[in-house]
């Protein structure tokens, strides 16, 4: 069967992917260097919250291959891939497991960071909503989960290299161009129009605003200290 050019990844999905890559790199660098950059680490975390909420919304409202229902790794789909019978374009079932795991762990990292503290001078934007003990617990989980995130990123990159070197399939190019050379019977992506994009963006902005803590009341001023007249 002759291959055909297939419209696979829509522009919002591709922009989300590469913005998330840049945000994760920036978060890792700023978190490792610390110091004054920890403030930017927090701001990047808020941005990532918005990105994750956008992707969750786009996974329902977006075009064909961006929708979770299209690639959710059911047992039957996983078995089909393991038997070498999976021919559908987009994320394969095992790749979908990786994608969902990454989204889940990145989401946990971003949300836990909103309540965390560094025991020095930085508190997450929603720190005041929890007590100190819970903030410390979330801070510890935030730190520990970063190791799992590094592992998932390494597996993700390893899979890209494996497909390129062994299977001669370039997974990066479609995420840049949106197009895929399909050898099966896939159809061009449909859906994900302007209204769906507006709704997903509105939800993302609302989530980022909520994560920023800008809606929280100003803390009361410290009590005045009376200075003795002597």
Key features of this structure:
about 230 residues; mainly alpha; Fumarate Reductase Cytochrome B subunit; two-stranded antiparallel sheet; 8 helices; elongated
Question: What would you say this structure looks like, in words?
Answer:
Helix content is 61%, strand content 3%. By secondary structure, it is mostly helical. It has one domain: Fumarate Reductase Cytochrome B subunit. A two-stranded antiparallel sheet has the order 1-2. The longest helix has 34 residues, at 132-165. The protein starts with a strand and ends in an 18-residue tail after the last helix.
Low-confidence segments, given as residue ranges, are: none
Here the CATH topology equals Fumarate Reductase Cytochrome B subunit
Q: What Rg is obtained from the alpha carbons, in whole angstroms?
A: 22 Å
Class based on secondary structure composition and strand pairing: mainly alpha
Query: What kind of sheet is the major sheet?
Result: 2 strands, antiparallel
Q: Would you spell out the secondary-structure blueprint of this structure?
A:
Blueprint: E1 4-7, H1 11-33, H2 37-61, H3 68-71, H4 75-82, H5 93-114, H6 132-165, H7 172-177, E2 179-182, H8 194-212
Antiparallel strand pairs: 1-2
Nutshell version of this structure?
The protein has 230 residues and is mainly alpha-helical. Helix content is 61%, strand content 3%.
